[in-house]
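User: I'm curious whether this sequence folds into something compact or stays loose and floppy. Could you predict its structure so I can see for myself?
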Amino acid sequence: MIDEAHVVSTLAARAIVPDASQRHAIAALLDLLGTTAQRKPPGAARAAQGVYCYGLPGRGKSLVVDTVFELAECAKRRIHFHEFLREMNGRLVNEPRGDDRLGSVSRQWLDGIALLCFDEFHVHDIADAFLIGRFLDVALELGTRIALTSNYAPRGLLPNQEYHERFEPTIERIEQHLTVVHFDGARDYRFSAEPAQRPHFFAPLDAVTHEQLLRIFLLYEGEDALYPQTLSAAGRPLNAQAAGASLLWASFEELCVASRSHLDYLDLAERWQGLVIDQLDTHWLAKPHTLQRFVWLVDIFYDRKRALFICSDKPIAAALNGLEGAHDLSRTLSRLAEMQSRAYPNPLDRVVDSSEATECPP
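Assistant: Here's the prediction. I'll summarize afterward.
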């Protein structure tokens, strides 16, 4: 069984020294892994069945949970919340009608999973609230151990006052069955990371920055892939400037101004290791639906550790600062900072290294 020293040494290899809240979370997660899924007899003290880590972006929530998750030796699954909703809704479409379709699908989904980690847990929509409420009921009933990361305290979930009261029973179950840990550190680790060797974000929109994007695409894909294509994203057409085996190049208008959902971005992140977003005119970001799509895109590509290159008329961080109209915008700014740092892995570099290694010598 892993212990705290093992976790701390693993974090130290990543130049992280846990603060008080991070150590609290590590202890709670280790306690969770030391418990069994067996039901307790009536009246017996119940061990926590999960850990709920919340706080501002960049405070190490995902880093701590992912580190313990990687070390855990059990049947486990880690999933981003957008991907979970896609899988559950896909199963519900095919589930026969019955009195408890959500419960049935939840049991099927959880079958064989002893430890479940949700990254970026949030509830903004009443339909999602009903789904996650029943799902958590089933998970608790089955004894599944749960680790969640969120930017929201449990009482901050589904903040819309029109619906919040209907979600309060689920919030109470979270507070009753999960250890809640507030990551309250003052430092956002992502903003202090060393810049990447090659820049990823470019401004303004001119011939010089276009040439830089062209060099990036040719580096990873070569000239054979450099031509316009019409592709599909979750069944919807997407006009790309170019698309190779690992890198997709498309305009911001096609990616975020056009009507798309998180399903489109999940599809793209599964098919390509990196994405070039070109022609981002920042005035579009003032439109709430467009801004929300951009937030979804960044979230999903960050979670999958995909490379992201952006060319905009103004520096993207400055354009996003102070905007309103999308959920979790502060997290997007934090993640964009990390995505252009040395700490963020570029999967495209592995593709290039692999292709060079397999070339035959002359």
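Summary: Residues 190-349 form one domain. The chain has two domains: 4-187, 190-349.
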